[in-house]
Amino acid sequence: MWLRQGERAEGAAITSWEAGSFQGRTPRLLFGRMYEDCEVELQSFAPHSRLFCIAAAGCTAATLAAAGLSVTAVDVNPAQIAYAQSRARGEPARPGSAERLLSGGRALLNLAGWTESKRREFLSLSDPGEQIAYWDRKLDSTFWRAVLDAVLSPSLLRLAYRRPFLDSLPRNFGACVRARMRRCWAAHPNRSNPYAWELLLGERPAVASLQCFQSVRFVCADAAAYLERCSPASFDAFSLSNIVDGASSAYIERLWKAVRHAAAPGAVVVSRSLAEPGAATRSNWAARDRSFLWGVVDVFRLGGSS
After folding, report:
1. Mean pLDDT of the chain
2. Among the residues of 1-112, which ranges form H helices?
3. Fewer beta carbons within 10 angstroms: which end of the chain, N or C?
4. 72: CB partners within 8 A, 6+ apart
5. Residue 158: pLDDT above 60?
6. How far is 198 from 35, CA to CA, in rounded Å?
7. pLDDT digit string (tens) for 223-274?
8. Distance CA 137, CA 173 (A)
9. Superfamily per CATH, domain 39-96+213-301
10. Domain ranges of the chain
11. Is 190 left (phi over 0), alpha (psi -120 to 50) or beta?
């Protein structure tokens, strides 16, 4: 019913995620957490929807299962599926490659004057106006901007990420991320924003109960290949993470064809991207996503308006 590791459907295009590694080596755990605010999905999907989602660390799948959705979580990376299934067995969360990279980045924050006490003071705020004032006065320094631009420069990122994924990022990625962070501080209370605590301190509360993980069906497969094999009208909702980042135009076309095949009438799709919005973006809820990384959070109904 699904592809085995290393198997590819005839004519299938490769995505940046197929290797299961940022650098294209042996498949490994990339994400120990997820950096997508599933409140977007909770606001978009009808109760009791049949949901197809990208598994990754399983956080979105488990949270939506807790809300009563029937969830099938698919990932092409066998290490991610094994990890999500381990969480369903009650094993604790553990860091992946992304968390180790973020941990290294947090170690540089002190160099930019972002001491732990300053970060905790900033995160304790709950008024967006106060947050922006604090950000402008104490955190958004010239040195901090230079550090972030250097860390997110193509020359440094290519040490960790594969070329197709890098090509999907905005040229001025550092400036884009800074703007997205400021947008978040201006809209969402820091004190109750788990994604802000995760980024700045590496602290985040548990996502969902063990029972919610256990109710999710986890499948190791390529997303497009799996959906192609589904019966028509199998799903009412799709949470596609940023699977399109770094994918070829051929794969993206194949994926959307597969989504339409497996979608029930009026199905709702949430698709994220680190890229800036383009002409093809139907709607953009990026400002509502508290994880603030995304340039695009496209929420739309198949065959209709957003």
Report:
1. 86
2. 39-44, 59-66, 78-88, 97-107
3. N
4. 50, 51, 52, 53, 216, 217, 219, 235
5. yes
6. 9
7. 999 999 999 999 999 999 999 998 999 999 999 999 999 999 999 999 999 9
8. 23
9. Vaccinia Virus protein VP39 (3.40.50.150)
10. 39-96+213-301, 97-201
11. alpha
